[in-house]
Amino acid sequence: MRLTQPVDLRPLDPIxxxxxxxxxxVAASISVSATLTFLCLVxxxxxxxxxxxxxxxVGLLVSQLLARGMxxxxxxxxxxxxxxxxxxxxxxxxxxxRDEVGDLARAFDxxxxxxxxxxxxxxxxxxxxxxxxLPNRVQFRDTVLAAAQADAAGCLAVIMLDLDRFKHVNDVxxxxxxxxxxxxxxxxxxxxxxxxxxxxxxxSG
Length: 205
Known about the structure:
With 205 residues, the chain is mostly helical. 63% of the residues lie in helices and 0% in strands. It has 7 helices and no strands. The chain has helices at residues 18-43, 48-70, 72-85, 100-127, 137-150, 166-173, 175-191. Helix 1 runs antiparallel to helix 2 and helix 6 (166-173) packs across helix 7. It is elongated and about 100 Å long. The two termini are 61 Å apart.
């Protein structure tokens, strides 16, 4: 048996006030109950207890469906907050509501995007060299340790490369030229990586 998610009815999204939405929700529930009571008692001739019970149940169902659509952004924000608390990237919070809850949902989604961008920047600073764009010492260490643990009986090679008299380049031609030289060397070395798992890293600044 295939289960489907409940459908959110959201005819009240264009309304810009949550108070107005609640008032319309109550009015719609009362109107539906009153109309159904009239039909059951007068038109169909049902007994009073049956007619009243049916009208109350239908009125509650209508109010529940409308209320579910109104609170949909809140459920999305709750799910996103739980994902963030668990350290997982949350999904987007989407809403067409124009009331205070919709404004809160859009602000929350903007905050989610900012947090994601900041986390990406932190990871970039933690594992990548800003000048050359190559993996830094931390990422190099983690990669070597992971490779050694994954293939303890295999062959692991580490090649160290040092640029002699690089300080002389900075002193004579300037730090800007020295940075360009490091970037060019990094690009050429990165192009030599031919096998999966190989890594070119800058270990010192």
